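haha ok so turns out i had the wrong file open the whole time. this is the CORRECT one, sorry everyone. sequence first:
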Amino acid sequence: FEREKGRYVNMPGIYVNYALAALDVPAEGSPLIVDAGSGKGKSTLHFAIEILKKNPNAEIVGVEFEAGMVEEANRALLLAKKRGLLAKNAKVSFVTADFNSPEMEPIFQSAFAVIYAEAGTSDVKTFAQTLEVNLHPGARVIAVGKNTIEERKLPLKETGSFEAQEAEGFSPVTVYTKRSEMRTQVFEGLKTKTAEKSLSSVISETGEE
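then structure:
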């Protein structure tokens, strides 16, 4: 459904898996992954469970403009930790913010990658500029979904600062890499394991559909 800042849609589970494969989070360090448009937190928690299996020191931040959805996401996060889906000290959080607000700048500047569901914002030009200015060279944007409305597509390639790559056979995911002098990583091997424990019970208890 349409919101003030963009469209809310549930990301299909298979798209979540594609996005996880595209992320290719390193097993070392403390990479920050930002889910821009986290809604009620279902996909963000799925991302977090899988990412933290590979790197327990990673940090996942879900960003959502609708305060009511952030409240639901935080309830789901607490329940996920209570049920052992996430460690109690897992660095997973949800914040209420506009993508283009000054408070988001340090978050994007520190990001290893940003996950974004197409149509998540109605102001795609400003969001593209925000990412262009703040992401460091080598950082990636994982755009999920095929937006058929041209004016709703995230125009990162048009900025001239990003290289775009779409994996053949996995068209719902496009990877944009911030240009740098270093050679960019090749997008390959879309294989990932789904969460060993289902989130269905968590979501049902929080009232998420």
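The first helix runs from residue 13 to 23.
again sry for the mixup
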